[in-house]
Structures are given as C-alpha cells and as structure tokens.
Design a protein that fits this description.
Structural class of chain B: mainly alpha
Order of helices and strands of chain C: HHHHHHHHHHEEHHH
Radius of gyration of chain C: 22 Å
CATH superfamily of chain C: Ferritin, core subunit, four-helix bundle
CATH topology of chain B: Ferritin
CATH architecture of chain C: Up-down Bundle
Radius of gyration of chain B: 18 Å
Number of strands of chain B: 0
Largest interface: B-C, 48 and 48 residues
Largest sheet of chain C: 2 strands, antiparallel
Number of domains of chain C: 1
Oligomer: heterotrimer
CATH class of chain C: Mainly Alpha
CATH superfamily of chain B: Ferritin, core subunit, four-helix bundle
Strand content of chain B: under 5%
Distance between the termini of chain B: 27 Å
Strand content of chain C: under 5%
Helix content of chain B: 55-70%
Order of helices and strands of chain B: HHHHHHHHHH
Distance between the termini of chain C: 49 Å
Number of domains of chain B: 1
Helix content of chain C: 55-70%
CATH class of chain B: Mainly Alpha
CATH architecture of chain B: Up-down Bundle
Number of helices of chain B: 10
Shape of chain C: globular
Strand order of the largest sheet of chain C: 1-2
Amino acid sequence: MSKNWPLWEIFVRSKNGLEHRHFGSLHAADAEMALENARDVYTRRNEGVSIWVVESKYITASNPEHNGELFEPAQDKVYRHPTFYDIPDEIKHM
Amino acid sequence: MKNKDLYNYILGIADNTLILGQRLGELCGHGPSLETDIACTNISLDLLGQTRSYFQYAAKLKGEDATEDTIAFLRTERQYVNVLLVEQPNIDFAHTIGKQFLFDVYHYLLLEKLQHSKDVNLSAIAHKSIKEVSYHQRFSSDWVKRLGDGTDESKTRMQDAINDLWRYTDELFHTTASDEAMIAQGIGVDVKELKTSYYERVSAILDLAKLDIPESKWFQEGGKKGIHTEHMGYILSDMQYMQRTYPNMTW
Amino acid sequence: MSEEKIKSLEKQFEDRILRDEKIEPKDWMPEKYRQTHIRQISQHAHSEIVGMLPEGNWITRAPSLRRKVALLAKVQDEAGHGLYLYSACETLGISREELYEQLHTGKAKYSSIFNYPTITWADMGAIGWLVDGAAIINQVPLCNTSYGPYARAMVRVCKEESFHQRQGYEIMMTLAKGTPEQKDMAQDALNRWWWPSLMMFGPTDAESVHTAQSMKWKLKRKTNDELRQQFIDQTVPQAELIGLTIPDPDLKWNEERQSYDFGEIDWDEFWQVVKGHGPMNKERMNARVSAWENGAWVRDAAIAYAEKQKEYKSKQAI
C-alpha cells in the first residue's frame, strides 16, 4: 500500500467576534487528525479559538478565466454605494 | 532542608516529565510525517515547561544555590526518581506512542487530584498542566487506536510495544516514604487509589484499538528508588554533558 | 493554444506582475514560472526540514532547561516553516511526496549551510545569529513576491522567525561574556560558520544564472552580492559589540562606499558542498530518508484506520 495522507485546508478563528480565516493547509489521514495537526501547526502561538478543517478536494473554486463575466459587471454598479447619492452638506450623519 | 518530603515528592512528579520530555525531544526532526513531528515536539515542550515549574518551586524549597538547572542536571543517576516507563527508548513509533499513552492516562488522573492539593503551588501547576495533559492523552489514545486498528504491521508493532511496556505500569502506583508523608498532609496524591481507574481507562482504549490487554502479572520497579534500567545512564550522559564538562558556568 | 495566444497571455502576465498584482494558484501562468517557483519554493522547504537536523543534534544536550525549550521550539518552527512552504508549493500542482522524492534522490537542492556539522554548543548560537540572520535577509523581500501562496507563507515565516536570530545572538553573547573557555567556544564557532554563512547568498552576480528572471518575478529584489554586503555590514558591528572577531583579515570599513570590504570567498569549497561533497551531505540525506522510510508503516496505518472508520460509519448510517 502506499496511499498518501490527503491535503486539508485549515480555517482558524483568531478570536470570538471574528470570522474563520484561511490559514493554510496540511496533510492528515482523517478529519480528527487534521484538527489535531492544525492545532499543533497553526495555533502554536495562541493564534486561534476555533478551527475548521475541510479536505481540499471538496472545495470548488471559481475559474479565474471567468473573472471578467463574474466580477467585472459589479464594477459599474455605483448606485450600490452611498457616495452615489447627493444630500445637502448640512446633514452630517447619514 | 525543612521540607525534605515535599522536595522529594516534587521530584517524584517532575523527574517523570523531565525524562519523558527529554526522550520525546530526541525525535524532533525524525518523525513519521512533518505534522506528527510538530505534534510530538509540542508535547515535549509542554512536559519540559511543567518540569521547569516544578523544579523552580523545588529550588526555592532547597534554598542555597539551587536552581531549576542544578536540580535537572547535577544529580547522580541514583538521585533521579522517575518511573522506569518514561526512560524506555523510542524503538519505533509504536513504542513512542505506547509509552506516551501509558504515561498520559496516569498523568491525567494524577493531575486531576493534584489540583486539590493543599499546597497552593502544586495545585496551581496541576491546574495549568492538566489542560496540556488532557490533550496529550487524546493525541496518544488516538494514535494507539490508529496503529492498533490500522494495518497488520501496525497492529503487530503496537501490540508488541504494549506488551513490552506493560511491565512498567504497576510502578506508577507505588509510593515512597516521602509520598506517604505528603499524602498524610493532604498535599500529595495517593496514587494507589488511581490504579483501578487507570487500568479501566487503558483497557477501554486498548479494546477500541482492537489490541489485547496483556495478562502478565510480572512487573518491574525501581525508578522511584533511583534504581533505573540501563538506558538511564545514557540519557543522563547526553542531558548532563554540558553541565558536567563545563562546571559552574552560565549558559 | 496558438503561439500567438501564449505570447499575449505572457505579456498580460508580466504586466500584472509589473503592476504588483499577485498571481494565484488557478491563474494562468507560463510553464517556466511554475517550474521556477516549484524549484525555489521546494528548495526553500527542503532547507527548512534539513535545517532541523544540525540543531536537532543538540536538543538532548542543551545546557539548561531554558535553552532546551527555546531550541526545541525553534527547531519545531523550522518544521512548521517547511510545512507552510511545501503547502505553498503544492498549489502549483505537485505533491509533497513528489517533492520528498526529489529531495531524497538528490534531484532537488537545499541550502548547503546545513551540510556543516554542529560540533559544540556555540554552534547553536552561531547558527541562530548568522544562518538565521542571513536567511532573514534573503526572506524578508519574499513577503512581497509575486506568487500569492509563497508570499503568504513567507509573511508567516518571517513573523515567526524573528525570535530565532535573537535566540542565537543571546547564546553567543552569553558565551562571549562567560569564562575564557566559553569565549573561545564562541569564537571558534564564528570562525567555522562565518564563511559558509556568506556563501548562503549564492554565487557572485557575475556567476549567478537565475538572477535576472528572478528579479522580474520578484523572487528576488536585490542581487546576491547586494544581500551579502547587507549581511556583512549589519553583522560586523554585532560581533564587535560582544567582543568577537570576524575571521577575515581583509575585512575593512570603506569610508567611501559606507560599507565593509571583505576577503575572497572560497568558491571551490562552495561548489564542493553544493555538489554533495560537504562534510555532512550524506548524513543529512540519510537522516531524512530513514525518517521517511521508517514512517511509512505509520502513515499507511493511519490511512487504513481512516478508511475503516469511514466504512464503519457508512454501515452504521444504513
């Protein structure tokens, strides 16, 4: 036999109130081990309060070749931003 | 020394963490995978950190010029009182894990009780350490299960390791005269009382790992009296090398 | 893809890098970019894990508990850094096992500095101070390199590495102000590690084959000679401060250049070690290969166990 430990992506919440952020990846035979390894590899310096692990093969990523159609149409939708609207200067907070 | 019994009692705990930490440190850079290497080093660091807390306290009790390092490095072999289990060599990863597992289960039960010691220093160290040891226990138990219920080869190796190391488990529950004195004062933990739950827990994990529980009733002892296996001298010659070769220097 | 199409993609690609945009794993990239990055990132990762060995050699013999935990933590960090870098490399479509294979068969290189033996405790000081010092100079610019995963790994590495050099310098400082025997030990270590540390920056610019391309892709921001000079200028005063002597009779402050002039590096020695004939090349490789081979049954067992558990769980679900 020579099957290699699969790759896992590691997400860590640095402190409560913050979202989980992608920290990196590592190899592990199963989810339990991935969690333990993530704890030992990515939180050695007190960097986290919660860990998510997901096997890399289960992540579906968008294709950068489609970036044009996916993301550029959002660029000119200025009316989604507050600065698009004119209001009198006297109104300070809105 | 006023508190000779307390001092001895502390060494009885801290020599275990020192020697086990030292043994694990040997593996750093040679683990079966990078991830596992990092994990084992973490455990070694935990154990050595605990050792330092105990020895710093012991040094205060001893007074004179004692420091954590004089206690760690400048005793003769007969003065170290760790159990035989922790000094056993890392023959293969199954032995490393087996030794760790058989110690972790004991260590956890010990600290659970030591948290309630009447000695505030010991209770504080135990309180801090038990979280680390709780993780050690999980880590080593998981690996015992993986190796025990993995491949045929890993099963054989894990079973061999457990069989080899089993004879050193009974000593964990022996007490010295100093231990008894500390138990009487509500400072020390009566390890004799931990024995039943220890073997229950160990057996439960071995069961899950589909390993046989050794039946041998022949046990080895001596570490707690400073009578060690032949491995100990080599551990010390490494560990004490600098302090012995260059006495009285600051590093 | 037509040649013309590739040319235009390449042009767009180079322009992106020029604009300081990052390249991410799924982005189109020229094959040469991919290969160069695999080579450099893996070489870097290999250096981290082979680099664990010379220092690991002193863990059991560290002279105090404080030094022992610091050294353990440092060597462990190197394992972590190796791991971050292997992961970054894997995003380029090569597996860690393949990378190990390249290391073990001698196809991939690692930093030659780790082929020197660590024979005294002072070597722990010299490595931290000089080798990590040189590594930091090489690495800091990489936090801004063009390949996203590499840059991110380097940010983490650099952040964690900051204690390594201090740890080493503190060891040297303690020895230098210790007994005459300790000071001799420190000086001896400096004598042995100084020149190999200078060699860490690679061949002179005139001899270096990769520099121009690497500059363009921000794998490098300064040339080998510039980095070497920076290292010397920053290290000489640190040696003086603790009363140690740099083992170079030609070392002299050059007022005009505002830099140190230094003696000729023994490039024959450099190439000998690079080609595998350094004092410890064989031992380092043996240690890596046997750790990997002795670990095979452990890794297999973990996979077998995971599969059994999965099977068991799916049966339970039915």
